[in-house]
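user: Kindly work through both lines:
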Amino acid sequence: MLKVHIQTRSIEDNFAFLSRRTTARVMAVVKADAYGHGLEETARCLHQAGADRFGVGSVQEGARLRDCLDAPEIYSLLGPVSPEDYHLLARHRIIPFIHSREQLKALQEASCSFRGTIPVAIKLETGMNRLGFRGGDLHELLETWEKCRGLKLHMLASHLSLADSVQGRQEVLRQLKTFEDYCRTMQARGHEFEKSLANSAAILAHPETHLDCVRPGISLYGDNPFEHTPWASKGEGLAQAMHVRAPVLAVHHLEKGAGVSYGLCFTAPRDMRIAVIGCGYADNYSRGLSNRGWMLYQGRRMPVLGRVCMQLSVVDASHAGDIAPGCEVYVLGGEGRQLLSAREMAGWLDSISYEIFCSLGKNPRTYSRAG
């Protein structure tokens, strides 16, 4: 019953906002179905706004994007995972991020089946401790790379772990230095390539990390990484693109002392008017919002009462004016100062805005340039 609406104008404006803050090339990150906003629709919108580089997650996602948009450059940030991925990326002109010698060797073998060269981005480990070649691997990496044929070194990249933390400045600079040291090691062997390190937060707060190519992700969709911090002003102007509504199914009175929903874990402290809303955890509206979340009706917030059920939730509608069955409430987004941001909802759940977008975005979506 949830309806997800994406305002594409907000995505376009966010792209322009971020692009104005750097002289580097911009790779628009649309991985994981564009963070729940819809891969194809979001990429088309960004392409019209001037984006000519896209970062997806899997190679299969890159092939989907290539089928709908002949963008100049598509990067798979996860790189090849299955044997089929190596041939898929060559056929669809996808630039893979490579993090292991095994991937490199398999890619070189796959390149023998295709004419021309395959551009490659090498992922370096500088502090996240996830994927990437470490400093001690560089000599072996160089030896392996220089034996490869059919491959072209296009980019070296790494990822920042604390760019979105006001207290993380020194770690950002340490990772930058480590990354630059690794790049110099490669350059000393005569290799030329682009350098990419900055994510959304680094674009806003750490200009020395921009280098040749920045990779905005979450902020394309309107999330301010510094919301509710002393650096909040750095992201002012970003606009949330995802707005999620749910129907009002019933409105009735609740007497003082009566309970609500399974477990009766909310008891009315006074006579109240409540509204039953058509959304629940089956719609990816988290059960963790029980007695913690808020919904929005005509600019007024209403707290969630009791447990969120599979397809139903209950809110306090005592001050919600003319709310009635058939009306709709916002469970995310909305208008005005009371807008429900993904970052705020994430705070109620001890989660992150990324998860909010990716989860709620699995519901049916509609698109428009305006609201």
Notes: The longest strand covers residues 242-254. The chain has two domains: 7-223, 242-368.
